[in-house]
Inverse folding.
């Protein structure tokens, strides 16, 4: 029984460590979210504007990798399309579980990959 508890504790520790394994946030550009930062489970629009040093960022698309802050979920990928003036949108982003999310945005600017994160809370 004691051995079983030891194994249990070891497993819990591993789970905690894995859950904290999200990469540290990068912020190569500024994001202004144009949707509420509290969302609901389902297919939802995600809209944001990007800028750098106060100027609108104009790129062809923004790659989104959405991850939850706990372990064991497949990331939800999407491409946000430009609406003009540095505003980008995904029409139907799939928030497939309630909890804490981080949308990692990535753009390609003159061959350089830039990243920044959007933290979101998703309610049931
Ligand atoms: Cu999850």
């Amino acid at each position: 029984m004691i051995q079983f508890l030891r194994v249990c504790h070891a497993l819990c520790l591993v789970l905690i460590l894995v859950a904290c394994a999200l990469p540290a946030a990068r912020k190569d550009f500024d994001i202004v979210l144009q949707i509420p930062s509290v969302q609901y489970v389902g297919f939802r629009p995600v809209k944001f504007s990007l800028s750098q040093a106060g100027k609108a960022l104009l790129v062809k698309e923004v790659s989104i990798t959405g991850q939850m802050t706990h372990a064991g979920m497949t990331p939800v990928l999407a491409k946000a399309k430009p609406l003009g003036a540095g505003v980008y949108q995904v029409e139907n982003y799939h928030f497939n579980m309630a909890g804490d999310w981080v949308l990692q945005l990535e753009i390609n600017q003159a061959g350089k990959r830039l990243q920044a994160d959007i933290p979101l809370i998703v309610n049931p």
Notes: The chain has one domain: 23-123. The helical segments are 2-19. The chain is about 15% helix and 55% strand. Confidence is low (pLDDT under 50) at residues 7-20.
